## 1
Amino acid sequence: MKKLYIAIPVIFVIAIIGVCFLVLRPGAPPTGQTSDGGGVRYKTASFVDSQGIGTKAFSMLIPVDWQSEGSVTWVLDNPAMPATGAFKAWNPNGTEEFVMFPNQAFFWSDNPMVKQMFPTGSRYFGAGVHSPLGAIDALKEIALPLFRSNVENLTLVSTQDLPQLGNSVKTGKDPTTGVVTVVNGGKIRVEYMLNGVAMEDELYCHLQSQNIPIVTYAGTYSNINWYMTYVESFRAEKGKLDPQSKVFQTISVSGKTDVNWLNKYNQVVNHLIQNQIQQIRNLGQLSSIISQTSNDISDENFKAWQQNQDIKDQLAKDFSQNTLDIQTYNDPTGGGTVELPSGYNTAWVNSLGEYILSDSPTYNPNVGSNLNWQQMTTP
């Protein structure tokens, strides 16, 4: 029996929560100001995969006066990307909103027989059948109709390719398998009316495609798996989007996947691949798979997590070097590092996972507070 080759994206796991790709400019002070006006205070928002694994899946930083919601959805007929995450944070006292949309998986083939069996608009192993697009066209032709169908008078203001977003992912032709990997990114800015309010909106995505040569008796054809990941939006009332750049940047670099959740996720993916991509259609079967997984993080799974975190970190660094103005700080409470917008004089953290960024070099959040705030230093 011929082995079925399934191309899994290099970044298929970290793309569940992704790195936000934003191009924003400095502006007025953001929301989330501390009560004494000394700085901007952020809290950690964590989200549980209640549908599947049942543990915390990811977390992000948001201003303390913002609200948020997030979830993980399992689509088990797609073995390469069986879970997708969605997240929204918004200012309840304003129009600012950040949304991370679910990743989108697609398939295409130039094999006439495959095209006849799986025409455009159908589904192939959980992926939508659609000819490959670049990042800009994917945002315009897929993201806007899918995620902005409820707006009026939508106008495309600008587009920008972000080719540097793929600098850290190996691309080109694999000499062993012949698979060709292409990575690119892009952003678009649109304006529209929403509930009678004029809005500005910038949408971003990272696009990865893998062209797989398939040898048949009639010749060699190509199967293409391509993915829209990091599909995200920042929007606000017209004239108020750019002034909130520091808030948006903070959210954009703060996303982190939980290592214990990822350990079980990798085991589920391995199970789906090793069992000939069986069509698992209900959560009862998912629970059965998860019950067979181990809570112990094997060396192999931990290495996979670490490699994916390294890719995520490098993608963030590549992006920040080209588009964002961020600063890395040592976190004395967790023993690691955290990336936050630069341009502040001091940065503070407490054991609750909250952060304060201040423009004042003499500001001390411990004054008048019952929390223990520690000042962070740069590496």
## 2
Amino acid sequence: MSAERFAPLLISLTLAACGPLAGTTQITRTVGGASRPGIFVSPYSYEHFIRAELAEQAGDLPLAAQEYRLARAGPEDDPLLIARLADVLDRLGRSSEAMSLLDDGAELSADDESIWLTRGAIHERHERLDEAEQALGRAVASAPASEAGPIALAALLRQRGRAGDADAVLERYLARARGAGAARARLALSVDQNDPLAAAEAVRALLEAAPARSDEVRAAARTVLDGGHPELALRLLAALPDHRGDRELRLRAMIEARAFEAAEGLLSGWMPDGTDELLLVAEGYLTIERPQRALELGRVAAAGDGGPRARLVIGRALAGAGHSAEAAAVLAELGPGSRAWPGAPIALARALRDMGRVAAAAETLSSAQSRSSHVELQLELSHMRRAAGLDASALSALDGDAPRLIAARARLLDALGRRDAAATAYLELPVDDASVPLVVRLRARAEQALREGDRARAIELIRESLDYAPENRLAQARLVELTSGS
């Protein structure tokens, strides 16, 4: 688990009025939802803490480590500083030093949540999942008023296939929690359970209690969208006030949910700021099958500094409007190395196919793949060969270890009735890779469960995949095989 997997540690430093004796003045810190008295935090330490956080956000981990060390040079050592420094050191490849530092932090304060959250994060980062679970359990016990531990532990349990245990952790926390912490945990639970109504209510309660948490809601929407739940993402985004920076995320969610009418409404009210945004809007119109509007915007962009990307939009729009020969002429000019690649050869091949030149379409993709290999080209070439009845050639086009290629290879083998080979391919698939459709990841998890001898879990996972894609005949056939005992 990276530091970003769990919520930012809940730390607020309420500095007392500066007294004459720094080092004796007491302040109150809120750590893990509990108020704790402590020694005065010197401006020196606080300044270096802020500098460290800024360096970390900028990706400068060596500078962040240096600043955290300087922050620790104040009048009293602090478990939070130790935890943050340890996490940075581990990400710099100094794992032993990081764990030793956390041991020192536990001696300083055995019940500090930040120490155990960070220990859990480091263990999970190195795939020591049993140790990570123990550390996060200790974090929950150390700070029962904080939601950070329960949310992190529930995420780990769900990752380990223990959805029921994950939900139980969040529900136990919700039974004792109030305010923003409870709303955040309720949001995590509703997202886990794919419950749009509960998620929307949790977002409303969270923003009412802590309006500054809008970024967290956006992050949750992006996560569930990557996980294959566009309708849930739309629910989350609908609870946020309209913000220009959300438009691209909202558009993507609408398109993936096939809410084309809503997407057109968003696009029609979008006033693009610059050529890149103009082309983004044009590409949105292409996706919702409004090629004429895309063509208009593409030509405006081409008259400016739109370059190859604008010509790609124009070519795709011409093809979408039925002007295949004109589209092919535009698209043929776009070569590898530009922002139009690999979209240009794919669009050209489709235009040629629509003109009845199927062999030329396949040759276009093969030539493009030989000039600049790309997963999208391989997938499109395989699709065209399959449509032409060239199954062996379609399969050979999917050679490679990219997750999307593995997923396509598994599904094609499945469709060809080669069940054992398909199962082997599914087992090769990284089940948490967001580039792979959710239904395919669920099928891969089902095959893993079968390999481990858990037939009931495999059936449950395939049924879950059918909830998302009831028309998936491959999953239907596999479910029949498993439930009939064959």
## 3
Amino acid sequence: MKIFKREVKLQRNKYLDKLGISITDYGTNFIQGKDKRASRWLKQQKDYGFDERETWNLDAIFVEWLYSHFMMYKEITLVDLSYFKFTYNKKKITQGEAIDIICGMCEDYLTAEFLEKDQHREIFSKKTMKLLGALMPYMWW
């Protein structure tokens, strides 16, 4: 039986590029070139809109997604990001400030050295997710 190999293409992300993260270090880009699993991944992409590689490091993929999508939201939104207010660390902050805090925590996580990732996961889980939970109902326009 012949195994049909297809080329695995790299995905680019403007915001991760700006952080100085190599395109080959993105969550789904650590496999490049020809791979015997590429046909399966292409089928999964057709069926689901994404493939299993995004679940291998779901924590990192989620942080990449959150960072990139929040950065784009800030760039293109027509919403007044000072209208909604939240309490964070016993201080009132705006929606825009909350987005900036979350993006900053994402940046810290994404640019941390490998051995520091566990520490950043814990901080991200405890602090970012609580603020994200308060912010999410207002992330539309």
## 4
Amino acid sequence: MGIEHIAQLTNLSISNLRKSPETAEMLSTGRIQAVTADGRLGWEAEAPYDAIHVGAAAEGWWVVERLVGQLKNGGRLFIPVSDEDVQDGEQWVWEVDKDEQGEVKKRKCHGVMYVPLTDRREFTQ
């Protein structure tokens, strides 16, 4: 499942995936999907997921909590998060694991600099 908030980028992703016979087949069977939506909300329709990778920095732990709710027990979330307590916008990649009993553990991994995770409304303003 790929989520993009700009329809043109969703369409470009699908177009590029169709260039390979293997990924074109996965698109046609639904094994790979791409949708236009607010990625901060995840995609509950297909949850729960084994893994979730976020390719832009979340501002606030509410995004993390929402996405953790869409993980399977035994799943992992990989997400860059802006440090809200630091004025220069420092970001860290966090690995968030949900064990088989549903207990969540968070591990701060790497300092990074990603673009912010936004929605379409914010992007167009």
